[in-house]
Amino acid sequence: MKTEPLLSVRNLTTTFPGRRRAAPIRAVDGVGFDIAAGETLGLVGESGCGKSTTGRTIVRLLEPSAGSVVYDGRDIAHLSQRELKPLRKDLQMVFQDPHSSLNPRQTVARIISDPLLVHGSSASEARARAAELMDLVGLIPEHLDRYPHEFSGGQAQRIGIARALATGPRLVVADEPVSALDVSVQAQIVNLMERLQRELGLAYLFIAHDLSVVKRVCDRVAVMYLGRIVEIGDRTSVYEAPAHPYTQALLSAVPLPDPAAERTRERITLHGDPPSPASPPPGCPFHPRCPKAQSICHTDPPPLRTTTPDTPHQAACHFPETP
Ligand SMILES: Nc1ncnc2c1ncn2[C@@H]1O[C@H](COP(=O)(O)OP(=O)(O)O)[C@@H](O)[C@H]1O
Ligand code: SF4
Ligand SMILES: [Mg+2]
């Protein structure tokens, strides 16, 4: 029997009102994917493509204008804040900039304990749990009474992770959790997140703007462009045989570890910036930048279709690359 996914997102659409009389911004435009318990889905794409809005809508920091977010069998897309409260324990978020996501005037003890106090723990229970969480994320429990500015960026992100884990979530949306950190620290935080996943059975939606960061951690990967998913599939399948020209371009920008391969690496340069989600181009949203565009691409939006029958891999392109 096939088990139900932990999270099942369908046709998710999140719109922001346009400025003055401008058209509304469809930041997320009909996105769908599943995440199984204990699994990591990587979500990648250039800045502004709608990754954060997708993550924030799933944990219901934002309300979608359409679509469903089925968590553990229940659609939470339109629940009221009161109905959401018990679910907040289960769905947590780690933010990009650790320092700006931690209140500078609160001690670490307070920052980590707050979600526990909200869910009914006593002050002493919450403090004891905060000390355990410090230890779990590799910080010194005795530093509980320090303030965020006393920690480095990597340590501050560990605090952000401890806060997210306080209530024992099953799904963590990590929104570019290492993008703001020094490269040397990035690997440590990624290692920590992998260890926590193994120990706690967490599922992650791991957001990154570049495919190299999620390569190690994800089981599957989804590529976003202008509010839509243009390619999604198993990690190996997408990295080894990308079907969509946009994914190919993103992958061609990733340096290769082997120096010989790196010297001959073919780079596909994308010209121009992504169009505004307030006025997406007709047809395929990628056509103004696509080196393979044909006339059908200017008029007909390509649906997300299976590209290789033997692996779960889909791309939204009229002329996908097939292995
Ligand atoms: N609160 C907001 N109000 C208006 N537009 C927004 C808001 N947040 C994001 N946007 C717009 O929505 C689009 C997607 O943004 P975002 O989800 O932050 O992208 P990403 O995380 O991939 O960089 C962008 O065009 C951005 O300008
Ligand atoms: S549908 Fe056409 S424009 Fe869009 S990615 Fe495929 S080839 Fe390029
Ligand atoms: Mg973002």
What would you note in describing this structure?
- The chain is an alpha/beta fold and 323 residues long.
- 33% of the residues lie in helices and 21% in strands.
- It has helices spanning 51-58, 81-88, 98-101, 108-118, 123-136, 153-165, 183-200, 211-215, 235-240, 245-252, 259-263, 295-299, and strands at residues 7-16, 25-35, 40-44, 66-71, 74-75, 91-94, 171-175, 203-208, 220-225, 228-234, 305-306, 313-315.
- The strands form 2 sheets. The protein has an 8-stranded mixed sheet with strand order 6-7-8-3-9-10-12-11, sandwiched between helices. A 4-stranded antiparallel sheet has the order 2-1-4-5, covered by helices on one side.
- Helix 4 (108-118) packs parallel to helix 6 (153-165) and helix 5 crosses helix 6 (153-165).
Order of helices and strands: EEEHEEHEHHHHEHEHEEHHHHEE
Beta-strand percentage range: 15-25%
Arithmetic mean pLDDT: 93
**Main sheet makeup:** 8 strands, mixed
Radius of gyration equals 21 Å
Distance between the termini: 31 Å
Find the count of extended strands (DSSP E, 2+ residues): 12
CATH superfamily: P-loop containing nucleotide triphosphate hydrolases
